[in-house]
Amino acid sequence: MELFPLSAVRLGPGPFADAVRTDLAYVLELDTDRLLAPLLAESGLTPAAPPYGNWESAAIAGHTLGHHLSALAALAAALGSREARERLDRTVAEVARAQDAVGTGYVGGVPGGAALFEALRHGGVAAARELGSSAHWVPWYNLHKTFQGLLDAHRTGGNAQALQVVTRFADWWLDVAATMDDAAFQAMLDTEHGAMNDVFATLSTLTGRADHAAMARRFTHRALLGPLAEGRDALTGLHANTQIPKVLGFAGTAAVSEPGSGLHEAADTFWRTVVERRTVAIGGNSVREHFHDPDDFTPVIDEREGPEFCNTFHMLRLTAALNRLGTRPEYLDYAERALFNHVLSAQHPDGGFVYFTPMRPRHYRVYSTPHSCFWCCVGTGMEAQARYGEWVFGTEGDTVAVNLPVAAEVDLPGGGTLRLDADVPRDDRVRLRLDLPAPRAFPLRLRVPSWCDDLVDLEVDGAPVRDARRSPGAVHLDRAWAPGTVVTYRLPMRLRAERLPDGSPWQAYAFGPTVLAARDGDAHLEGLFADDARWGHVAHGPLVSLADLPLVADGTAGVEATGPLRFRVRPVDGEPFELEPFAGVHGTRYTVYWPVAEGDVAARRAALLDLDAGAAVDDITLDRVAFGEQQPEADHGLRASASDVGVAGALRWRTTRDRMAVTLRDPEGRAVSLRVGVRQLDVPTAAEIRVAGAVVATVRLEAGGATSDVVRPVLAELTAAGRPADVELEVVAVDDRPTPGITTVRLLRWQA
After folding, report:
1. Residues of the chain with CATH 2.60.120.260
2. Model pTM?
3. What b/e sequence results for 44-74 when a residue is b if at least 16 CB atoms lie within 10 Å of its CB, and e otherwise?
4. Which class for 630: exposed (0-12), middle (13-18), buried (19 or more C-beta within 10 A)?
5. Hey, what CATH class is 621-748 in?
6. Alpha carbon 464 to chain centroid distance?
7. What does the pLDDT look like over 647-702, one tens digit per residue?
8. CA distances from 4 to 156, 324, 385, 585 (A)
9. Neighbours of 517 (CB within 10 A)
């Protein structure tokens, strides 16, 4: 199935159309000259305005511009916005000017990026690994946004110059990569590189050049492809948003590869693994940006850093790519779930995008502000909110497909329009009107969602349909259509309960395509609208106790409708509560998942109390670094040499044979103690823990597999020298041994 281009679809009244208009206002609020500043400065040109702060003044400077190009192209196509189109054309012209100034085809905002990538020509594996060092963050990820933005400017926005610029950009990389051997190239792919394979696959279809298709195949990261090609889930512990774009590229590269490449099969295995085993009710996945153990969803309930928006954005792109290779009902079911819930909920009605959407009961989300926040999820957020229209309709050969029950109108191939009137989940009735210039025969494919047993009361011009053909997830009408023909049907909706994927006793409620939630008050919503703070994208307000959460009955027992999309739940134990669509819950704490009263109520309450133990430590934590996790390390300025990351299940750590350091924040000078999580390795280890240059703890561990999975706390009082706002923590290898694995470092208000 091919989805219709955004320019052919117009959304009708409803929350999706409202979200697109809100997105337009946010995107146009941004100062394009400030977004261009890193690219122009790196090209030796004088920017017209200073760069933005936050991520745009860090090693990832310039990444937002690529998202901005993609969003402008999508908004110009979806809304016909003249201002978006004019700004798109001007921005592409400025990128071209920067590219001309460099002269090699390279263009990017990565600090020192031209020299950094030039070193790959003959630097071998060492240079490739340097690309992913802590000093540079994720340079390929950054460049990918520019590549993708230029492609979208051309394909979605119709800008011809963008294709010229991105082709020159690609030629620069082909020239650099020509001298890289396979080992160096694969070592380079260990660092996050977005969907560069998909970029080159797309370019090959636009240019017809075989070298573009070959580079798409060369960007296949075999360390990820191998297990997937064997049908294995080896994702636990991996950074989710690093992997999903790679797999999107597997699907795109499959289309420009010989049969038997295994790329399509690997992409499908990944999709099924993530959607069926690792995805929560709203369509999101991951905790603290990483894939956790699919057999233990405790972190989803426990942690404040729940599903990351970028993951869902890229899972939708992967879903569309797989759907082009072969339509399956579950692809559209997932797209609907993600769009109606995670995507629609991730933008505030007044503007602002969400990074993490906690599934921890009684927590909340944080929203970006236009001139202060430039997180990755701001970039994907401004793109995603513009793209709802492309999912509503599709084509399969000469068949026109109705995919989502969303009010919209589409321009049909061969002339005429198809108008869809729907207000699901508020109303189960769907109406289609075919406004054709003349009678025409073609098949119409009507999707049957997984939450609906079948279409009901299917009629054409008021007459019941008796000749419909059915296939999994669809009803097909194949006939000659007269101008003005009206097709009507109903999609009966019912309340249902959904367990977490691991089957643990936690459930969410849903009605039709919509996940429901309860409001839990607006107390302590610290940082609700974020500033430019380093960790402003995280909802740092206190974690509320889970011990007295209402215990609900398994399934939908005890739930009654009280009004349109309003439900009252009478729990087995605890006070009743009200449910409403999650996507409309903003500016408050909320609960999506509820503990199920299985077995003895007292035992269930005791289990909830155990979960609060982590909240108690969190409550006294001033700052925290999760070692081995990309974002926390980057945000705390990791400096490391002779260092490696280890992974075991969902646990990650970093060790060094020399030294590594981070900067923790204690702006009010309240820190009293330090907690360092240490993982024993299979060799003898030793380390000094230093604060402000002073040794505060020494750790020596002998090898031993029996306790290798135990995390041991190391506490040390901070001296007066450790009182500045920036607390410098250093871990140094001693006694000719590597350090133990350092898992998590916490700066605490008092010793615990």
Report:
1. 621-748
2. 0.94
3. ebebeeebbebbbbbbbbbbbbbbbbbbbbb
4. buried
5. mainly beta
6. 44
7. 887 788 999 999 999 999 887 777 778 888 888 888 999 999 998 888 888 888 88
8. 11, 12, 17, 30
9. 27
